[in-house]
Specification:
Layout lengths: L8 E11 L2 E10 L6 E5 L6 E2 L5 H9 L3 H18 L1
Antiparallel strand pairs: 1-2, 2-3, 3-4
The chain binds zinc ion.
The site of zinc ion has 6 residues, from loops.
Length: 86
């Protein structure tokens, strides 16, 4: 899958990892025409944006390499939202 790049968009970095038992790939890009130039998008659909490059690397790496604590937290969040959905 080739990510679609705008002309003003620059490739910043790619992270490979996994979460939820599936392989995940995060692509970070910079586009100065956006209000928050730095964005990373994951194959799972997540795409947070950042005003500066600071924050991109740690969050992208963390997203593709969740710790046990992150896994428990996302599991708890899923259980909680499942319970409140009814
Ligand atoms: Zn993801």
């Amino acid at each position: 899958m080739k990510p679609q790049m705008e002309e003003t968009e620059f490739w910043v970095g790619t992270f490979h990892g996994s979460h939820d038992g599936l392989p995940a790939k995060v692509t970070a890009t910079r586009d100065d025409t956006r209000p928050e130039p730095y964005v990373w998008t994951c194959t799972c659909g997540a795409s947070p944006s950042f005003p500066t490059e600071h924050g991109v690397w740690s969050t992208a790496w963390r997203h593709t390499h969740p710790t046990c604590f992150d896994r428990l937290r996302s599991l708890a969040a899923r259980l909680f939202s499942a319970r409140t959905a009814r």
